[in-house]
Design a protein that fits this description.
With 273 residues, the chain is mainly alpha-helical. Helices cover 67% and strands 0% of the residues.
């Protein structure tokens, strides 16, 4: 009675080592092959969007795309089988990316044009940091994630203030310029305020009166200062050192990464590493 769970555990462990780990020759070969297929698939979608190439080898590119999509679909199912808690992997960042990598092609059977979204699978190339054992890059990614998370509250307050300011500026410009100068409504004026404050400057709407130009000049100057604020907020969090290093090992239960080098248990699900 004890042999069946043992065999199942060994089978799952072997599959996990090949698919999720890059420390073994089989695992590294699997990941390198996976990266090559991602590059080929992304290139095929990009080339198919060029009219001359599509007319010449369009059918061959579509066949290649479908073949790779089927391979990725089988691989996704194997990843679900390789972990003890499939839902944990499915809800993880790479789990969502892996699913999005195969959905566009299947959806193209119902919705025409969705296959162009296959380029999303280029995000899977992020696994190259783990494959090449660039653990310090994983540490930097963890640092960036922590900085963005710590900055979220400040950025939300900042954006709320900016949105209020933009509405006020848009209303003022609508009052100053009016419909005869292209500012046909307050929403249209708000659009102008956003374009001007972000220094994009499409030029499809421009003030014609002296007061309007003075307000526009003020908005442009404010825009240069505003652009630096969110950058400063995130930078202030980035300079706080993250002393802990991380390993490239993936949890066999939930597939989570980013553990400490000496960790014996997963900090997300608690299972042994």
């Amino acid at each position: 009675m004890s042999s069946e769970p043992t065999n199942t555990g060994n089978w799952r462990h072997t599959l996990h080592e090949v698919i999720f780990e890059a420390d073994t020759p089989a695992g590294k070969a699997f990941d390198i092959l996976l990266l090559l297929l991602i590059l080929i698939s992304t290139a095929a979608v990009i080339l198919e969007s060029v009219t001359t190439i599509r007319q010449a080898i369009g059918p061959a590119l579509r066949i290649a795309e479908w073949a790779i999509t089927i391979i990725f679909s089988v691989e996704y199912l194997l990843r679900l089988l390789a972990v003890k808690h499939p839902l944990s992997y499915a809800r993880s960042f790479f789990g969502i990316v892996d699913l999005l990598a195969i959905l566009p092609t299947w959806l193209s059977l119902v919705f025409t044009g969705t296959q162009s979204l296959v380029v999303i699978r280029a995000l899977r190339l992020l696994r190259v940091f783990r494959i090449l054992k660039l653990a310090h890059f994983l540490r930097e990614a963890r640092l960036l994630k922590s900085a963005l998370k710590a900055s979220l509250g400040k950025i939300v307050v900042f954006l709320g203030t900016i949105c209020t300011l933009i509405v006020i500026i848009g209303a003022l410009m609508y009052l100053i310029e009016g419909e005869e100068n292209g500012f046909t409504s307050i929403p249209q004026s708000i659009y102008w305020a956003i374009v001007t404050m972000t220094t994009v400057g499409y030029g499809d709407i421009a003030p014609a009166t002296v007061p309007g130009k003075m307000l526009a000049s003020l908005v442009m100057i404010i825009g240069y200062g505003i652009l630096a604020v969110p950058t400063g907020i995130v930078t202030a969090e980035l300079v706080r050192p993250l002393k802990a290093t991380v390993s490239t090992q993936a949890c066999p239960s939930c597939s989570a990464e980013g553990h400490d080098p000496d960790a014996r248990f997963c900090k997300y699900c608690g299972d042994a590493l």
